[in-house]
Each structure stands twice: as structure tokens, then as C-alpha cells.
Amino acid sequence: MYVNRYKIRDNILNMTKIAVVTASSSGIGYETSLLLARNQYTTYASMRNLKKSDELLKTASKENIPLKVIQLDVNDDRSVSNAIDSIVKENGRIDVLVNNAGFDLFGSLEELTIEEIKGQFETNFFGAARVTKSVIPTMRKQGSGIIINVSSIGGRIGLVPCNTMYHASKFALEGFTESLRHELTEFNIDVILIEPGAIRSNFAENIRTAKNYDSNNSPYAKTVQKVFEGFEPMLANASDPKEVAQVILNAANSSSPNIRYTVGKDAESILKARAELSDRELEKWVRESFMDKKGFIRQ
Predict the structure, then answer these.
(1) Which of 26, 152, 271, 273 qualifies as a FRET site for 59, CA 20 to 30 Å off?
(2) Counting Cβ atoms within 10 Å, is residue 105 exposed (0-12), middle (13-18) or buried (19+)?
């Protein structure tokens, strides 16, 4: 029997919708949680450390919006299960999941430990898989839902030297999303990707550098220095987290969302270069963008 997934989605527009956002203490997660709540989603802003929730709760209280904070560590099976079970018990449904948790691991493959690499994938990929797996039964039984995975333009193209494992984790998230769509389409569950370029947030605070990196002895020291210098023009063209939050809201509200949403002029420029250049030309342009401090905006 054919079921129109978008008609079902439209039929619940007048219901109170429940949203869950991971890593909501700052940046994209923070702005997304507030924006969803401002638009009448009962929003569960989850985070690993509830001590970081003060500013979010203060804003939510001041604006009198339906936002709640809940402890959820995407790397911990029990934490995820407890949080999702609590939300479902309280509301009976989950309509939107935003998998936003992630961090940037910086370092050459040679100097990274296997444990550091596993840690990158544990949060950026397995964290999203773990939370998604936990919400699917509820969405399947209710016959609708949308899962929004915050990837990166770096999940489409390898861009930054010594950022190999970050790119690899985002590439994995992209493949995961594309395949999962096929599994869940018959249950009227959409799975989509958000692909921001550089974002103006606490970038420097969240980046993690290889523990074995020594600027005085590393064979990659010159490359690392040039890359960090190249971050300056890149961040000059960075998007505000609020722009990403607005795209997420638009996708959540759409009766027929796109599979992918690119955010930022730099991300658009990178995709344009990919379409117009050969593999060799693209590789040359990417390297020059960092090493010559040009940034990723093509003229």
C-alpha cells in the first residue's frame, strides 16, 4: 500500500513537534536549539556537560520559549538511551533529530595515534549513528520524522592538509546518510545533510591537535604553520552559526526537504570549483587557497 510521506508530515503540522539537538552548549547547536524553540518546537537541547547550559537556559527563560536542557553524551550508549527514553516517555514522539555533535582533529596521519583517530570517529560518526539508532523506533512507529545530520563541505571534498581524519569522519557521515535514506523511506522518515563551510564560532577552542605533534621537530611543521595562517582568510569569510540554524529550521519545516543543504559563500564556491575543475586542477586550487592565504572564495 502506497503511503504519501509528505501528506503525513503535513498532517502533523498543527501538532506540538518535538525536536532533539545534540551538542547545544555553543555554536550551531546553541543557535539551532533556540531557533527551533522560538518557532514552537518543544526543543530538547542536549549536551554532555550540563554546567554549560546556564546561558541557554537564561535566554530560553527570558523569551519564555519551550526549550529544555537534557544530559546526553553521544559517545555513551547508556547516556543516549536514557535521554531518548526520557524524551519519548514525556512526549510520546520525536519529530526532529539534529545530529550536531562533532569536533575537529588536527594533525598529520603519521603523528596521530590510533586512539586519537578512533576518538574522532567516535564523536563525529558513531555518535550520530548511536543517537539516530535510538530515535528510529519512535519515528518508525509514529510514521514520520526528520533526521538532520550536520556534516561539512569537508564531507564532500578533502580540503585542509593535516585534517585528514576530520574529513574522513564527515565523508563517512555523508555515505551513512545517503544509504540510511533508502532504509527509512518506507517509514516516512527523511534523513538529510547540512554542509556548512567555515563557521564563526569557538573554532580555536574546539580544535584538537595531535598529542605527538612537536613544532620544533615535526617534519610537518612548515605545512602546519601555513595551514594555520591560511585559516585567517578562511575565517574572514565564515558564516554565522545563526545562518546554519535557519537552514536547519527551513529543512525541518519543509514538507519535501532537499537531500543536502550547503551553507556559506565559501561552501558554494568550493562546490562550484569542484564542478568546473578537473581533479588535478581542484587539488592545486585547494592547496593554493591555504598555502597562499587566498581563502576559498573564487573570483
Answers:
(1) 152
(2) buried
Residue appearing with cell numbers 535566554: 59
DSSP-based three-state secondary structure for 68: strand
The count of residues in the chain is 299
* Residues with catalytic roles: 166
**How many CB atoms within 10 Å of residue 71?**
15
For 126-249, list the strands marked E by DSSP: 145-150, 189-196, 207-209
Q: By three-state DSSP, how is residue 48 classified? A: coil
Could you give the CA distance from residue 280 to residue 262 in angstroms, rounded to a whole number? 23
Tens digits of per-residue pLDDT, 14-28? 578 999 999 999 999
Provide mean pLDDT across the span 152-161. 93
Indicate the residue type of 84: I
Per the rule left: phi > 0, alpha: psi between -120 and 50, beta: everything else, 37 is alpha
Q: What three-state secondary structure class fits 148?
A: strand
Each residue of 15-28: b (16+ CB within 10 Å) or e? eebbbbbbbbbbbb
Query: Is 9 within 8 Å of 15 (Cβ atoms)?
Result: no
> Cα(171)–Cα(278) distance, rounded to whole angstroms?
20
Name the residue type at position 263. Answer: V
Tell me the Ramachandran region of residue 50: left when phi exceeds 0, alpha when psi lies from -120 to 50, beta otherwise: alpha
Backbone angles phi, psi at 16, to 5 degrees: -70, 120
Query: Which domains can be identified in the chain, with CATH numbers?
Result: 5-217+240-264 (3.40.50.720)
Task: Collect all residues with Cβ–Cβ distance below 8 Å to 158 and sequence separation of at least 6.
Answer: 164, 167, 286
Q: What is the arithmetic mean of pLDDT over 170-182?
A: 98
CB atoms within 10 A of CB 119: 17
- Provide the residue type at 210 as one letter: A
Across the beta sheet with 67-71, what order do the strands follow? 67-71, 41-47, 17-21, 96-99, 145-150, 189-196, 260-263
